[in-house]
Structures are given as structure tokens and as C-alpha cells.
Amino acid sequence: xxxxxxxxxxxxxxxxxxxxxxxxxxxxxxxxxxxxxxxxxxxxxxxxxxxxxxxxxxxxxxxxxxxxxxxxxxxx
Amino acid sequence: xxxxxxxxxxxxxxxxxxxxxxxxxxxxxxxxxxxxxxxxxxxxxxxxxxxxxxxxxxxxxxxxxxxxxxxxxxxx
Lengths: 76, 76
Description:
three-stranded antiparallel β-sheet; homodimer
């Protein structure tokens, strides 16, 4: 049983972050806290349709707003 | 190429949510916006070590605080 099989990354996944807002075509957003293998918090959005993964800047106001919007959009 | 291969879920992933705070042993948190297959926003934490997935309540104040804490914990 390897660390990787548990989904543990041994390095940062993001090299650079997307600066412009990516809008509403988001399938999911992953938040990865700082850990022993990566000293940055990583936020990775997966886009609908393509499944493309886009790294986002945790300090960007639009990223914080987008996450707050996702969480607030509860059962209608 | 299947929808599932793109990571598209065809149903909600969470049946019930964990009510008590799960603390600091979080490897990652996934935020899944409402979509045509699931009318609930889903928040799924993956625990360190075990890799266990735990569904969290988007309306729970401790969940919102935990997410805010992850995002704010930027490069030191």
C-alpha cells in the first residue's frame, strides 16, 4: 500500500495559477491544505465537459467569492 | 469516452453528513456545486492516513470555518 494509492501527493500539484475568473463551468473544486510535501494551500478546479484541472490562487478575491457561492448554493 | 471517465457523477455522492467537527486530519476537501444529477451542494473531506471520505454539511458553521481556515493558510 503506497502513499500515492491513498491519494497522498509527494509534491505540490500546482506550478502556476489561473488569474482570470473561470466562471460557472466548474464540476468540482478541491482544497488541499498545506502539508509536509507542499507549503502552499492548493485550490484546483475541475472544469465541466473537458475535465481540465485549473489551479486557482487562494488569495484571489474572485476565488474566495466563487467558493462562498458554491457553499451557499444549498438545496432549493 | 464515458461521462464517468470525466469524473462526472450521475447521482449525489453523499447519503448523510458528519455532524461533529473532524479536526485537522484533512488531506483535501472537495466542493461539488449543485448540478443536474444532484440538487445538493456536496462537500467531501478526505482524511489523512486512512483516505476515508467524509461528507460534510455545507450549512454547518464549523464546516464554513474549516474551509475559510484552509484558504487563509497561505504560504508562510
